[in-house]
Amino acid sequence: QRQKEKWEEEEEEERRKLPPVYAEPKSKDFNFFLIMGTYPVIHIFWVEDDQILASSMSHHSFSAQRGRLNMQSSDNEEDVYGGAWCAETEEKDHWFQVDARREVQFTALITQGRESEKHEDFVSSYFVAFSNDSREWTVLHDGYAEWLFYGNVDKDTPVMTQFAWPIVARYIRILPQSWNGSLCMRLEVMACSLPNSYNSENEVNRPDDLDFKHHNYKEMRQLMKVVNEECPNITRIYNIGKSTKGLKMYAMEISDNPGEHETGEPEFRYSAGVHGNEVLGRELLLLLMQFLCKEYNGDNPRVRRLVDSVRIHLVPSLNPDAYELAYEMGSEMGNWALGHWTEEGYDIFQNFPDLSSILWGAEDRGWVPRVVPNHHIPLPENYLSSNGSVKTRAIISWMERTPFVLGANFQGGEKIVAYPFDMQRPTKTGGLDRRGDQRLHQMNEETWARIQRQNEGAMRETADEAMFRWLAMTYAHSHLTMTENHRGSCHADDVSHGQGIINRASWKPVVGSMNDFSYLHTNCFEISIFLGCDKFPHESELPQEWENNREALLAFIEQVHRGIKGVVRDLEGKPIANATVSVEGIKHDIKAASTGDYWRLLNPGEYKVTARAGGYSPQTRLCMVGYEVSATPCSFTLTKSNWDRINEIITLSKRPIRLISKSPRVTPPNKRRSRLQLMRLKNRREKMMRIKKLKEQMTSTPVTTTTPLAPTTTVMATESTTSSWFDAWFEEDSISTTPSSTGAELKESEPTPDYSFEYKIDDF
Ligand SMILES: *[C@@H]1O[C@H](CO)[C@@H](O)[C@H](O)[C@H]1NC(C)=O
Ligand SMILES: *[C@@H]1O[C@H](CO)[C@@H](O)[C@H](O)[C@H]1NC(C)=O
Ligand SMILES: *[C@@H]1O[C@H](CO)[C@@H](O)[C@H](O)[C@H]1NC(C)=O
Ligand SMILES: *[C@@H]1O[C@H](CO)[C@@H](O)[C@H](O)[C@H]1NC(C)=O
Ligand SMILES: *[C@@H]1O[C@H](CO)[C@@H](O)[C@H](O)[C@H]1NC(C)=O
Fold this sequence. Notes:
The chain is built from 19 helices and 25 strands. The chain is of the alpha+beta class. One 2-acetamido-2-deoxy-beta-D-glucopyranose (NAG) binds next to loops.
């Protein structure tokens, strides 16, 4: 009851703050439906290529098919993906034709210039003609003369022209009369089916009785409230922060025990609207919460199981200010970019701290995982004091608060699922120059090519590449149309080769992405789902889009149960918070929640899993992951280690200790060493190597011989922390690796590439 009152107060407060809403219709949808009722529309973006025809084209990259509204160019002058239809200006008559394939009522046109960095090409005036057979054409007349329509005044902004009355015909032609720069244009034709053909192919049956419309901020709040009232036992509304304009980022939690983390129950998140103009994800999440609520109440066993076994968080709008901008303009009239950024000009998706560079910089120095962890990399010191987006910070704190296991963010403008890394690892300068390196010079071509390939992969693969591919596949293949590629992708060739998935770094790399951050700073595996070519689909397309996505939405949540899970406890059965869980062969660890429970997403297989916690001896277990979608229980009981006590003593005496089971300290390379010293060093090194080998042979789990490092890290901080000390350490270490692993060895001793790498040892 109190919660409800609070909600109402908030509602009232919000209402006062919102700008007054005018009764004037603002979105094109409104006008359109006023004229046409609710008959389905025809969208040229979705018609087949052979329904579009033009008088000529200036170059093979500017065919009529490139003339769809919001088409983006591929930036490659050589290929066929130009940013508009452009006519051959040598010709005399120009026209662009769309065949609706049957008689329809044409109601409006939306035109746009060419998408281009350099060129300012657009059509400024045109006639419109109609035909029923494509031979006899009637130019639209205003009673006195042929009706001249004014087109665009710049290349980006869409301009809508509504006809004074609907025109019944099968074909429509646009006849450009004047233009700026070259004759180039993109356009959308609005048309309705004739009333008597209402039950035609455009009709979508609506099996789910849900609210299929675009919801602005107020309507979204209202809808969430209704869902909450309908399903009070399994839902909770909270917000994760405020935008610059004071709009809240609302989250709907759906779980059998909303409001609390239950030990053993994984947390899942879907978020949408990082870019305010990519709106489909927002509506899908609003539909999903209605669906889960209705089906739960209707005892749908699949939904019951899902809600009872997962804590689901749905955030429909991470950038509410920008959405309002795009919503005001409506489905077609916003251009490709309006509402993409936040009020302050940030692209939230890429506004996260770049932890990838920190990880890679440390890897190049051989610091991972002993100095810099391979997971839960802390925020850079300067991040919190810098002027990042308020929203990004709110999102980060939300990610940190909740032990999410799996998540996805919805975007638009493409139809593909993208998984991390999102950032491309920079190639090292001078590192693998073949001629420059003696050893490489002796390599044969085949070996060289193999190493190159491995390096290429390593440039963008996470340690969990296989798992990420699986997760991305699950969504793409459960989606009804994501893998259809008969027309390539939205704007260029189908980069996914019919799979519907792509590694983001190999496609359109970005720095500081939400996905990379989530993977490196938290346990959560996050991917981006690009829902379709049209960033702002027409309201009448929402039922079809829901059908396309419904199964995928559910199937992806179910993947949170793939892998192993368990609780890390001490001998008394008390949970150990923040224990580290590592899987042999995967260089990315997971941290248990503060309640000691953990989840590790894994593909089917057999894994050697080790749990570690400060002050405890590590424990290793063999855990099997099967093909059924339910996590294999794999819990740990850790015993207190002697290192705990030793550590206490060391800390008390304040004496630095290092390299407990490692080789001795090496003189920094810049100091000259006598031959004798070098000889001694070499002997010692060989001795250490022999001992190490022996140890490895004796113990079945070599890992444990080096693990006492956990308590040591606290001591490191008391040591004067110059990097040369650590360089020396790793130099020594890399010598002792076996020479057979050429690739890895080279990496460790190479100079650091020239991307920003700021890391202070003190952080640990
Ligand atoms: C096409 O045919 C319909 C009748 O089926 C007619 O009403 C309409 O005017 C025709 N359109 C044109 C452009 O001739
Ligand atoms: C028209 O095109 C020319 C170059 O062709 C460009 O300099 C000019 O700015 C354009 N005009 C407008 C209004 O954009
Ligand atoms: C909520 O839970 C209570 C107690 O278990 C139950 O009586 C009530 O019917 C439930 N309400 C709904 C809408 O499921
Ligand atoms: C943050 O923004 C404020 C005001 O815009 C400015 O005065 C300040 O210098 C900025 N701080 C940083 C670290 O950029
Ligand atoms: C676990 O980690 C969290 C976040 O880093 C921290 O706030 C908490 O104090 C830690 N708990 C323990 C028992 O170390």
